[in-house]
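Example record for the data management plan.
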Amino acid sequence: MKFLKFKGFNYIDGGICAAKGFLANGIHCGIARKALSLVGENSQQSDSTDETPKKKDLALIYSKENCNTAAVYTTNKVKGAPIFVTKEHIKDGMARAVIVNSVNANTCNADGIDKAQKMCELTAKHLNINVDDVIVASTGVIGQVLPIEPIEKGMEELVKGLSDKGNKAAIEAIMTTDTMEKEIAVEFQLGDKKCVIGGMLKGSGMIHPNMATTLTFITTDVKIKTEYLQMALDDVIKATLNRVSVDGDTSTNDMVSVMASGLAGNDEIRGEDESFLQFKNALYIVLMNLGKMMARDGEGATKLIECICTGANCEKTAEIVAKSVITSSLFKAAMFGEDANWGRILCAIGYADAEFDINEVDVSISSDAGKIDVCKDGAGLDFSEDEAKKILMEEEIRIIISIGNGEDEAIAWGCDLTYDYVRINGDYRS
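Corresponding structural encoding:
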């Protein structure tokens, strides 16, 4: 996937380890899907006879310094146990480590809070830090008891392997149905200081707008007060991850956290000044690109779809229209079939809960292969089906909508709906 270029910002390697002061690691500790076969001799015997490479399932991010920390969480009424523990731990706006497992979501379990707290206690013990400075997250199957024994046994290896090159191992450990690594880091200036924001994300299914999207972990060496770190995250989330949808399902465990080590040495951001705006722009670049990667890697997806709505009288109206299109199953299926069925776009625009004149709606479809206009003032235009097919054969498709003469616009990201989405989710637990 191509990254957009922004003046004054450079893409660099390293992901969550790119910012000063951060280390990471990921290991296979052996968390099984079914709790009954998790530990003991039978489990060990199975491991010894199975020659299949072991996917990593436990990740750790660690900061050498205490970090000002902000987070946002799922809007689902059913929440994973780690969310309750993390909220309590970062009430003071501080954190120093993130422990996260895949395979098991630790959700809807009677002992879930105890298990999440135990993960934090194990992390704190091995890192020699305060337990309240540990963020915990889990992702995977809902409703199965999380075994703590494999995590406990794996902690020594996990901590021992912490490295400023450990970002790749950590990403693998948090992936579930993901088929690609999702990480990014950008470098920029605040005054005369070079600063970095980096991040990693897991997310492929159960992706829908309104901060229910993913597990995302952001690190930065910018010095910024917690109040303004939270403010920046809240604002940027609205224009990035909250505008991504894969399947319309809001997950139970979603969390985005940002830890700021302050090691860049910039003057502390403590107001909505130019440095704050520059920081927000960098955070936007990171979260926007991670969101696009997530949409491109939607379960079974073959195409990234970007919907741009312009001409609105307010940004919220443009956002509602763009989201309505990228969440339409009929439209998503048409994109998979490379069928320029623009009527499905108009249908999705028409049931969007927003006020505008449908007789002023124009629609175009574009990609690197070209652009065609398919609708003008709410009515269809003649166009070449062959040319449309060629445009829709590309892996990145843009739907461009104008709904009037207003000055506001919004972008949303989604993917096509394929046979493989059903296959993946039909046997998710097996």
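Summary line stored alongside the record: The longest helix spans residues 274-296.
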